[in-house]
Amino acid sequence: MASTAGQPQQINVADLDISQLAEVKRQLEEELAHLTNSFGQLKQAQAKFKSCIESVQQVNAANQNKTVLVPLTSSLYVPGKLRDVENVIIDIGTGYYVQKNRAQAVKHYESKIEYIKDNLDTLQGTIQKKQDNMGYLVNVIQSKLQTQASGSGNKE
Does this model's pTM top 0.85? Predict the structure, then answer.
């Protein structure tokens, strides 16, 4: 006999009572909120990397020795002069920075954007499935409520 331990058991939602359906609906709403929040955060990260590409492209020979604002944090900038317009220092994560030439830096950020795009596509599919499940669940709840209402109406 095959063991099903560790495997999720499938339950037909139509077999659940209204209070159980309400709990499943609440869980689905929480999952959807979390997934939607994650989607938004990924979109923000993607926009940040696109902004980084634009910043790298601003570093060019025409701007050499010009005063620019250098970001120290996301909200603190100090004036500085561009001396080396061929190389930039990029944040590769967890507080580590490396020097790359402009083409390498753009390629790095483009790969990050593509990675996020793939994750966004996957996440969008998951969100769509959860929304479809939510729609089906709401229909089941409404059907049960109507059945309950018509059943109690016949008893009077």
Answer: no
